[in-house]
Design a protein that fits this description.
The chain is mainly beta. Helix content is 3%, strand content 38%. The chain has a 13-stranded parallel sheet, with no helix packed on it. The chain has a twelve-stranded parallel sheet with strand order 3-6-9-12-16-20-23-26-29-32-35-38, with no helix packed on it. An eleven-stranded parallel sheet has the order 4-7-10-13-17-21-24-27-30-33-36, with no helix packed on it.
Length: 435
């Protein structure tokens, strides 16, 4: 899949030609170049080992003219090696910055790979693309991608994150560093001690945020989230947890749109947990742990929730929706295929196909296989009537396409609408080769 960064028109690495705004640097001189970068500039880092981190401080690109810092796109990498006492990619007061094609090797030191620092005022419109982040697992507190200041308009795309304490931790634990209007797509996050992804709850929005009065959607799509092999116990965490938006004022109508993801295994916690306004649709959930999907109060309560056209295979609980009795919002659970010991609990349920975990094989092609062979498409002739409501078409992107991107027939339910889909492919959109 190809993407165009508006305003950035460049030549390939192999062409040997440079734009006027292009600069090339290596491990010996790149730190001299960084402070001079202006809107529209591109810094092309040579392959090699970088041991002094990547401090991006007080850099401001523009709309359509980002500042780009990139390594080679092939197997020869620009590899940043962690050092004690400093996060490897450090972001302070930056705007319209693109970082791509880097390897961030943590060496299991107690630092983060990418961090929008807590003492920063902001880090807005940051794109992280095709990064290989690994071995930041000194403890659960060490994170692949972390934001600890207000962060608006981030794109986190096509990255591979593995063997880290927490994959992505977006926002601060006190709710005062909102992550707003993000796009998280095509990433592969595995082997984490804690969350694959957590987006923290939000207190009232601080003044001065861009587009503060608009409604923003944070989109989480086409990712692979796996905690296979993690240990259960008191420090177990869900694969993905999303917290609430501000309960009133700017941001209170914001939403999470979570679709087209594969959630794979968690022996000690749920695959997905959420509250606030969210739509969870066209996802695949497979776990031998206690829960697949759990919608429940965390720092606030679930509000408008739509759980639509997912396929769940779980030995424990399938989809659970728990809200206070006086909750004024609707939680709809419709068109899902759920095979679990306890398939569905709570919410307004309709047009769901449910059964015990052992019954999955009668309806799904190969539901109990390992990754690489598992096939959750329906067996030929196995279908139950569902409906894509007009209001869903209007405001839920790709609701009329299934997990595989195929048009959804009007009577199809579950995440995969067609029989014979075959094993589920697993890779980020631009996976970097393994060393």
């Amino acid at each position: 899949m190809r993407y165009l960064l508006l305003g950035l028109i460049g030549l390939s690495w192999g062409s040997g030609a440079l734009l006027a705004a292009d600069q090339v640097a290596g491990p010996r001189n790149y730190l001299d170049v960084l402070p001079r970068l202006q809107a529209g500039d591109r810094l092309r880092l040579e392959a090699g080992d970088y041991t002094q981190g990547l401090p991006l401080h007080h850099l401001r690109g523009g709309l359509g003219q980002p500042i780009v810092v990139e390594g080679p796109a092939g197997a020869d990498r620009a590899r940043f090696i962690a050092r004690r006492g400093a996060n490897t990619v450090s972001l302070v007061d930056v705007e319209h910055v693109v970082i791509r094609n880097l390897e961030l090797d943590g060496r299991n030191l107690p630092v983060d790979a990418v961090k929008a620092e807590g003492h920063a005022r902001y880090a807005h419109y940051v794109t992280l693309e095709n990064l290989y982040i690994h071995d930041h697992a000194a403890s659960q507190q060490n994170v692949g991608i972390s934001t600890k200041c207000p962060a608006v308009g981030w794109v986190i795309r096509g990255n591979r994150i593995e063997r880290v304490g927490t994959g992505m931790y977006l926002g601060n634990s006190d709710g005062r560093a909102p992550f707003v209007g993000g796009l998280i797509e095509g990433n592969q996050v595995t082997d984490t001690l804690g969350y694959n992804l957590q987006i923290k709850h939000q207190k009232p929005r601080p003044e001065g945020l861009p587009e503060v009065a608009a409604r923003h959607d944070t989109i989480i799509r086409h990712n692979f989230f796996s905690k296979q092999g993690s240990l259960p116990g008191p420090n177990a965490r869900p694969n993905v947890l999303v917290g609430h938006f501000p309960e009133s004022g700017p941001g209170s109508e914001d939403r999470y749109l979570v679709y087209g993801n594969l959630f794979w295994q968690n022996p000690g916690e749920s695959l997905f947990q959420g509250e606030g306004n969210l739509a969870l649709y066209n996802n695949l959930f497979v776990t031998s742990g206690p829960d697949a999907v759990r919608i429940q109060p965390h720092n606030a309560v679930p509000r408008e929730v739509r759980i639509l056209f997912n396929t769940v295979v779980a030995t424990g609980n399938g989809i659970t929706v728990r809200v206070p009795e006086n909750n004024a919002f609707e939680q709809v659970v419709a068109g899902n295929v759920v095979f679990a010991a306890r398939p569905l609990e709570g919410g307004t349920q309709r047009h769901n196909l449910v059964g015990g975990h052992d019954a999955a094989g009668r309806y799904l092609a190969n539901p109990h296989a390992e990754l690489g062979a598992i096939d959750l498409s329906p067996r030929s002739g196995r279908r139950q009537t569902g409906t894509v409501e007009a209001r869903w078409r209007q405001d839920l992107p790709d609701i009329e396409r299934d997990f595989a991107g195929n048009p959804r027939p009007s009577d199809a339910i579950g995440a995969l609408a067609r029989a014979g889909g075959g094993p589920i492919p697993v890779s980020p959109m631009n996976e970097m080769p393994r060393p």
